Amino acid sequence: MNQNSQTPPEFQKKKNSINPKYIAGAAAFVVAAGACGFGGAMLANNMTGPSGVTINQQSGNSSTAAINDVSDIAAKCGPSVVEITTQGVASSGGLLQQQYITQGAGSGVIMSEDGYIITNHHVIENATAIAVRTTDGQEYSAEIIGSDSQTDLAVLKINATGLSPATFGDSDSLEVGDAAIAIGNPLGELGGTVTTGIISALDRQITIDDTTMTLLQTDAAINPGNSGGGLFDASGNLIGIVNAKESSTGVEGLGFAIPINGAIDIINELIENGSVTSRPALNVSLYDYSGQSYYSQGNMEAGCYIVQVVEGGAADQAGLQVNDRIVKFDGQDITSSSEVKAILNEHKIGDTVTMVIERDGQQQEVNITLQSQSQQQ
């Protein structure tokens, strides 16, 4: 990730209720031996990941053909996309706090015949009850198998058999201008909606909730409730998880999707462990101080501060302390926690990385050996 490039645009993911200003997109994926994709020119690779779930993935680029009629794609892939509704409990602010029920809606993609489903983390975040409706009208209660806020991926499980899983495509082989077909549940009421467009750009650096993600850009219509649905190529193979759309300015045709190739390892980890354990971490909590914040002790300079250190973690072993300001990390200037996270994503567990911190007005350099993620950054 190029930290010297222009600051990426900021977007917010849709939470458990529809936000008219920022709405999350369509996306989701599917692992399994199923036939959503079609087009005999491609080779299918059946892989069994650590989770034991078989991934049926088409190799190579199958999206170059022009699309005039997507009825075959809709018919074959539609049954792989489900509607998701959630309920949660929230508390009002003020002295007399009251609890109330929140409701949300999104989409998901069936990844196995026995009921594993991929969706976005933000679709099911803070949910106390999750319901899944398939295209045949059957409704199931779902449990969360695993969820990861940093990649905005989650895996659900329903008690069902004989479902129609999707076939993964090859997002690494995509080119700008390739066809893109989104299937999802816009507005939480219009399940099975199909919209078409193209891949508008590759490798967009987009910051969502202080996390910088590398996403595909598409102009296929994305609306609230599409989150967690599928983005397919011209052969009906799943190529991305659409998870964000910017709508505050009224500009249309700006949807973003998580490339499927980068999601496969995360999906397997969520199924196997319930969380992502292979990601390196500092094992600290970070806070971005702007000068207008309640978290202030004395004359603090704006920047990224350590506000909690996990005992025995990487930062603790390197001698980092609460209130240290991170000045540089891996040779790059740091002004926010999102920049720290982006650099961490370029490393592996066991890597030793240099950090420059400021403590009591003095800068010092420390070497940190990265550990597994034992606490959310």
TrEMBL record:
Keywords, in A-Z order: Hydrolase, Membrane, Protease, Transmembrane, Transmembrane helix
Single biological process term from Gene Ontology: proteolysis
Molecular function terms from GO: serine-type endopeptidase activity
Alphabetical list of SUPFAM superfamilies matching this protein: PDZ domain-like (SSF50156), Trypsin-like serine proteases (SSF50494)
Domain (PDZ): residue spans on this chain: 270-361
Pfam families attached to this UniProt entry: PDZ_2, Trypsin_2
Domain of life according to the entry: Bacteria
TM helices/strands, residue ranges: 22-44
Family note: Belongs to the peptidase S1C family.
UniProt xrefs under PANTHER family: PEPTIDASE S12, PROTEASE DO-LIKE 8, CHLOROPLASTIC
Protein name as catalogued: Serine protease
Organism in which the protein naturally occurs: Faecalitalea cylindroides
